[in-house]
Amino acid sequence: xxxxxxxxxxxxxxxxxxxxALEYGETNTExxxxxxxxxxxxxxxxxxxxxxxxxxxxxxxGVWAIxxxxxxxxxxxxxxxxxxxxx
Length: 87
Hints:
By secondary structure, the protein is mainly alpha-helical. Helix content is about 85%, strand content about 0%. It has helices at about 5-25, 30-50, 55-85.
C-alpha cells in the first residue's frame, strides 16, 4: 500500500466517521467540526482521485471540499467579527 492509497482510505474514513456521527446525533450540520472534517476528507479524496485520474470522483469531492470550505470560512469570519466587537 502506497501513501496515496493511505490518504484515500483515511479521507474516506473521516467522511464516513462524520456521517455516522451525524446519523447518531453526535454532531450536526451547523458544527464547524462537521464542515472541517468534510473539507479535509473531500480534499484528500480529490487528491487521491487526481492521482488516479478519476475525473468524476475529482468533481464530486472537489465540490464537496469547496462547499465545506466555504462553511468553515464563514464560521471563522463570523468568529473573528465577534472578537472585534468585544474590544
